[in-house]
Each structure stands twice: as structure tokens, then as C-alpha cells.
């Protein structure tokens, strides 16, 4: 069986939630190569954690040596 791959990811909506504390949840649609789709829900903090991992694993793409060559988009930290 061939391994399925992500074909497209889109943010469908953002919800403000207050339980257990105030936070935002991003509703994301993931389309797969086998024509299936899934809806996933993630907090901003999970996107930020992924960003940090990408910058650690791909320092050149993160612009550590030359900021003009950065291809990983900037993502502000939570305030």
C-alpha cells in the first residue's frame, strides 16, 4: 500500500475559547493524497512549538547565517 502524503492544508476558522482559560483554537483542514480529508484542531502554541523545531533542524532555512535567505516564515511568540 503506498504511503499517503499531505496535499493541502488550509485554516478553516479560528475560535476563541475560554475553558479552562482564554485561548485560540485553529480549525485546519488537511487533504491527503488518497482523497481523504481530516479536520484537526490546534492551539497557537502548537504552531509555535513546530516553528521552533523547524528552526532547530533547518538553521540555514531559518536564516541563522543569512537572514535574507530565510524561507521559513516568521511566527511571533505568544504574548
UniProtKB/TrEMBL annotation:
The gene is SH3PXD2B. This is SH3 and PX domain-containing protein 2B. Residues 59-79 are annotated as: Disordered. InterPro entries: NADPH_Oxidase/PX-Domain, PX_dom, PX_dom_sf. Gene3D superfamilies: Phox-like domain (3.30.1520.10). Residues 4-79 form the PX domain. It comes from the Eukaryota.
